[in-house]
Amino acid sequence: MTKLATKLTPNSDFLSAVRPVRPPQTPRGRRGGRTVASWPLALSLLLLLLVSCSALGPLLRGTAWWWVCAAVGCAVLLGAAVFRRLGLPRLIVPVANSAVLVGTMTLLFGGGTGLFWLIPTPQTVSIFTGLIDAGGASIVQQSTPAEVTLGILFLLAGGTGLIAILMDLLAVTLRWPAIGAAGALVPLLVPGFILDEGADTAALVAAAVAFLLLLRVDVSGRRARAATHRAMGPRVPQIDRSERPRGRGPMGGAVLVGSLTIVGALLLSTVAPAFTAGGLVTARPGGLLFGSGVSPMINLGQDLRRPKAGAAFHYTSTGTEQPYFTLLTLDEIIGLTWTARVDGADVRNTVDAIQKPFGLDADVETVEASTSIVIDGVNSHWLPAPARASSIEGLTGRWYWDSRTRAIASVSANALGQEYTVSSLELKPTAEQLRQASSDYPASVVGNLQLPVEPPSIIEETAREVTAATTSNYDAAVAIQNYLRSSAFSYDTEAPVEDGYDGGGVGVIGMFLQEKRGYCVHFASTMAAMARTLGIPSRVSLGYLPGVKSQDREQGLGQYNVDSHDLHAWPELYFVGIGWVKFEPTPGRGTVPNYERAAVADTPNAAPGGAGATGAPALSPDRLEDDTALERGAATQTVESSNLLGILGLSTLGLLVILLPAAARRMLRGSRVRRIRSGRAGAGLAWTELQHTSLDHGIPVPVTETPRAFAGRLKSLRAVDPTAMEALERVLLAFERSRFDRSQASSDTLADDLTLALRGMHSGASLGIRFRAIFAPTSLFATLAAVLRGERRARTIAP
Amino acid sequence: MKLDPTRSSPPAQAVSGGNLRELQDAGRAIMRNVETVIDGKHEAVQIALTVLLAEGHLLIEDVPGVGKTMLAKALARSVDCTVGRIQFTPDLLPSDVTGVSVFNQAERRFEFKPGPVFANIVIGDEINRASPKTQSALLESMEERQVTVDGTTYPLALPFTVIATQNPIEMEGTYALPEAQRDRFMARISMGYPDSDSELAMLDSRDTNSPLALISAVVSEETLRDMMLTARAVFASGAVKEYAVNLVRATRDDRDLRLGASPRATLQLIRAAKAQAALNGRDYVLPDDIDSLAVAVLGHRLVPTSRALGHHHQDSGPVIADIVRRILADTPVPVGVAASDQFPSESFESAPSPSVPSVHAVSTRPVGSTGAS
């Protein structure tokens, strides 16, 4: 036997060389790792959040917003789980979570202003404040179901993110899952405050199930934690297995209590609308147009400001002109606001017998017109109908007509889905008749002369000034109409809201006359108020413009479509012997009634573009239609092309995002192999790469396994070809020598062996696993964790 | 070259490839030799050989008739060295083990007659049949490797290995070895019943003649001593030592164990792992060596709680093996950080250019890691 070499090596002393031993690790004390990440808990939290978000559905149009909320929720909750898996201290996780939320919001809403699209810059902050303001304003302006503007989307996404952080903090960090779930109550309760019927029962039940699941997952999580150190498996002594808790245990009680609570809550929520309807919680009338009668004008404005118009109804008419459709008429000024004098239906006046218009002289020309209306989206107990309806057929439900304003209304029925035919009188007075109308008003109309006790003086001053040169009431009215339609005034649905003078109250009119910006409500109420100051009875009607002619024809008659943007307000003035005559003071909207021409031409349609005797910049119905149609067409076109661009950009971006991990992983592997080949790194890095590739393939790399056992498992898992197996053996040997041998042996073929082994592993895997390994490399998280810990590169997976 | 068993630190020597190969060849020869008489007990034979090389003592515990004594004898006969055999009985006296001073009439003085313990390999058959007094006489000499009779201390032979066999404690007429004395053995193995093929083969080959008669020594005493030295010089890295310490500490904290393993257990675990690494042709210890030896080396030192024992009142062996395997599966394997990975540029310059041994062929059969699987 040869002599033993007698070279002294350091660190060979037997006992003193033992490294300081760390205290025994308990599962609870261990930072990071599978046990702490508790994926099931995170996933059930996420499920609960998504389900409760869907409860907001009845409030909002479309479903796209839900996906954005889901994305943010996923980012926050799954991000938290990943952070825990990476071993971030538990108190840091909420902070890191907030960072994730900010990053996600910057990515989604920052419009590229963020640093690397993720880190907010001052510019991003200003964008965000703008979005918050816009979102708040949109919420105030719109009625349900609201159009989801970018601002609302921002608020929704941000709210979801905040709730997610709160839920994660309570449920996972502080381990109070039942309380953490309370965060999900927010989206569940919101519909209850806004809609009479509250949230969808299906959503409530789904949320309840998700909540129970969360509790259940938490219970099993706790049991698993308690049993982590216990032996498992068939070879475990019987005593070990029987030690595990059986039955519901103390946590079963929590589940029971939770279930009872949920059942109780569900029962309550079905009973709850009874309370809210009683006025305990004054809800804004959901989709009911002018439902409450509190401020129809403001409601009208809100509907006009909706970004997207909803279809209201369509009709065909035999009349000579396209009628304005009246919903209700405001004829009284109470305090400072216009209101309907009798808000509600007179139950004696059913629509079966509508009286002839009152006070109509025989010599005024009238045309009987029949209008068939199909309601598509008017959710109201007021019925849109042309003025001076004489009979209405085809209605379902009990409908009444108001003896004073002739508005059609119902107490119980709804306009939605009605199909009916209205016979009405078109009034065609001549300018001469109007001029000659006396001012001997009947008693029933005198009330329409009332003004508030102290109206702003500017109203009467302006009225006097504008009508100085006129002699008759009619001329005065036309003068006021012309004045309001002049270029001094501009049509603007936003300005009054922004400057705080929305609505049609008398106080508002004063401001409107100074600002000279507003929309139909302001123009109509201003003209009506000015007329009253001049002693002409007036009122304001709310309803719809005639709408746009569509391609469809029905029984030889042109069909017209009316949408929510055709909502309109216009003044009506009373002329003795003729009745209520409408005017159109709103610039750019509707048609100016042309009473001058009626004397010479029987058919108004025969004089297209006739400016009328008033010389007002009136628009003919045809031109208006054309313009509107053109405008809409252009709008759709731009929308379509920009949509296409957006879709293209988004898909490219999505593709890049999908390919990003694959590219990063590939580059990382390349750089590692290069470093090994150049001798700058040794077998340790090769082993790290092998471990990471295994992670990518979904093969766990437990720290309790020896390298040799791990390699053996790799071989048994993958039917690796012999050359790859030998290469793997060589990599293993090199790694073992680098870690457990005293010499730093370097292998020249290490890089090649590694590549060979990796290739063998990859080719031995199934298609799905290969796909996953390429496009969703799990090991990037390990690398990320190393970078987060401040290391330059990932270490070998080891305790 | 003299072996000093009392030295706490092994000689810091590198192992040359030639030594290792000789050791491996000799080891294989012994294994083949022993396996001519013991069929289908490869693992037990391997651990027995490992213990022999690691200068430890071996306890073979099993029911009667499965070949305990056969293994001990075969192992002893495979090496050309002195073999002592003690059949323990209840009436055996300590002096029957250690030797006795006899008055020499001619020289008119007491003369020491060495007992059977003065041999290189001592086979203690059915050690738990002797009275505790006699047991302790043997166990004392095992630890101290010397015998003191009438005030005179006699050193024992080198190498000195005791291979003791015993029946499980529930058998009649036995005195269980106290924990302290079990601790002196490096490893305990159980033979277990042979599988049916091995048993059939045994019927054919050993029907008439005693197979032990066919066995002859294949390794000289000198070679064995060299092998022991080589095994002792195998390198155990810091990571491996840390792993051993963590394992042993885990036995002390485990809730299913009343008594954990001693520091001596750690020491012997590493020693045994070195011997096994050498037998596998490696000059460095792998965590896998520790894994494969843990049950044998740690098992007999652990005392399970009565709860963990459950209804296995009779035989704690399987329960303890399960517990050790669980601890193995739960204990992280420190891999350490190679210097070359952390400071790639410096290490190559500052490293004292170690004599890099050529890469040895590792046995194609991977080290069995019974516990970690």
TrEMBL record, chain A:
<keyword id="KW-0472">Membrane</keyword>
<protein>
    <submittedName>
        <fullName>DUF4129 domain-containing protein</fullName>
    </submittedName>
</protein>
<feature type="region of interest" description="Disordered">
    <location>
        <begin position="15"/>
        <end position="34"/>
    </location>
</feature>
<keyword id="KW-1133">Transmembrane helix</keyword>
<dbReference type="InterPro" id="IPR021878">
    <property type="entry name" value="TgpA_N"/>
</dbReference>
<dbReference type="InterPro" id="IPR025403">
    <property type="entry name" value="TgpA-like_C"/>
</dbReference>
<dbReference type="InterPro" id="IPR052901">
    <property type="entry name" value="Bact_TGase-like"/>
</dbReference>
<dbReference type="InterPro" id="IPR038765">
    <property type="entry name" value="Papain-like_cys_pep_sf"/>
</dbReference>
<feature type="transmembrane region" description="Helical">
    <location>
        <begin position="201"/>
        <end position="219"/>
    </location>
</feature>
<dbReference type="InterPro" id="IPR002931">
    <property type="entry name" value="Transglutaminase-like"/>
</dbReference>
<feature type="domain" description="Transglutaminase-like">
    <location>
        <begin position="512"/>
        <end position="587"/>
    </location>
</feature>
<feature type="transmembrane region" description="Helical">
    <location>
        <begin position="95"/>
        <end position="119"/>
    </location>
</feature>
<feature type="region of interest" description="Disordered">
    <location>
        <begin position="602"/>
        <end position="622"/>
    </location>
</feature>
<feature type="compositionally biased region" description="Low complexity">
    <location>
        <begin position="602"/>
        <end position="618"/>
    </location>
</feature>
<feature type="transmembrane region" description="Helical">
    <location>
        <begin position="150"/>
        <end position="171"/>
    </location>
</feature>
<dbReference type="Pfam" id="PF13559">
    <property type="entry name" value="DUF4129"/>
</dbReference>
<feature type="transmembrane region" description="Helical">
    <location>
        <begin position="36"/>
        <end position="58"/>
    </location>
</feature>
<feature type="transmembrane region" description="Helical">
    <location>
        <begin position="178"/>
        <end position="195"/>
    </location>
</feature>
<dbReference type="Pfam" id="PF01841">
    <property type="entry name" value="Transglut_core"/>
</dbReference>
<feature type="transmembrane region" description="Helical">
    <location>
        <begin position="251"/>
        <end position="275"/>
    </location>
</feature>
<dbReference type="Pfam" id="PF11992">
    <property type="entry name" value="TgpA_N"/>
</dbReference>
<keyword id="KW-0812">Transmembrane</keyword>
TrEMBL record, chain B:
<dbReference type="GO" id="GO:0016887">
    <property type="term" value="F:ATP hydrolysis activity"/>
</dbReference>
<dbReference type="Pfam" id="PF17863">
    <property type="entry name" value="AAA_lid_2"/>
</dbReference>
<feature type="domain" description="AAA+ ATPase">
    <location>
        <begin position="54"/>
        <end position="195"/>
    </location>
</feature>
<dbReference type="Pfam" id="PF07726">
    <property type="entry name" value="AAA_3"/>
</dbReference>
<dbReference type="InterPro" id="IPR041628">
    <property type="entry name" value="ChlI/MoxR_AAA_lid"/>
</dbReference>
<dbReference type="InterPro" id="IPR050764">
    <property type="entry name" value="CbbQ/NirQ/NorQ/GpvN"/>
</dbReference>
<dbReference type="InterPro" id="IPR003593">
    <property type="entry name" value="AAA+_ATPase"/>
</dbReference>
<keyword id="KW-0547">Nucleotide-binding</keyword>
<comment type="similarity">
    <text>Belongs to the MoxR family.</text>
</comment>
<keyword id="KW-0067">ATP-binding</keyword>
<dbReference type="InterPro" id="IPR027417">
    <property type="entry name" value="P-loop_NTPase"/>
</dbReference>
<feature type="compositionally biased region" description="Low complexity">
    <location>
        <begin position="343"/>
        <end position="363"/>
    </location>
</feature>
<dbReference type="GO" id="GO:0005524">
    <property type="term" value="F:ATP binding"/>
</dbReference>
<protein>
    <submittedName>
        <fullName>MoxR family ATPase</fullName>
    </submittedName>
</protein>
<feature type="region of interest" description="Disordered">
    <location>
        <begin position="343"/>
        <end position="373"/>
    </location>
</feature>
<dbReference type="InterPro" id="IPR011703">
    <property type="entry name" value="ATPase_AAA-3"/>
</dbReference>
